[in-house]
Predict the 3D structure of the following.
Amino acid sequence: MKKLSARRRHPLAAVVVLLLALAATGGLYAAFAPAGTAKADETAQSLAIEEGKKLYTVGCASCHGTGGQGTTDGPSLVGVGSAAVDFQVGTGRMPAQQPGAQVPRKKVIYSQAEIDQLAAYVASLGAGPITPKAGQYSPDGADIAKGGDLFRNNCAQCHNFTGEGGALTHGKYAPNLANVSPKHLYEAMQTGPQNMPSFPDTTMPEKEKKDIIAYVQAVNSDRTETPGGFKLGALGPVSEGLFAWVFGLGALIACAVWVAAHTAKAKKS
């Protein structure tokens, strides 16, 4: 008994007991862990990729190549990620009706389940931006004022100050953001579709993306309300300056002419 008590008081006894407990815990977890769940997830992912490949072969391969390597009619999809597929197909831009300076938004022809399958297949071709979860793009609790600052600094040059959109060069344009879902706004910032630059988390953190989404939703929530007065197309200072120049200065000139005419009449009389 004295020998056993002395061993219990040994400085390394606690370490040995801890190691034995960890080993026992790991063994029990390995024995009773729901390995079937992990296998089920892997199986579901494999099925999604397989179904996505079938959809891709029918609707995408003619332009992007049988293995997503790209052709003269479409860019490579290796490394674009599932977020790009969810945005392009989820907004109806893809499959494209015809080549052009810019592919417009149109009616979506795939279900969300089919879009997820296409995204799974394209994501398997190479790592890229992942389709965001609801918590990443939800504007709840976002700073609308900060989002406005970020939007004006990074987006207004093309989309105008409230996301009305605008013309670019060579037949391209920045689309109107009024009816774009928060998910697709987030994915557009992630992936930089068509002429838009991309804003990965290393450039624009998730919180700032959510602030921008909150601002875009706020200024487009009810276009009939304009607390600042007539919105003049909501295009920013250009239209407002033009209005002030044409009508404001015109009114002043008309006033000056009227005063001069009446002054001349008064002198003659």
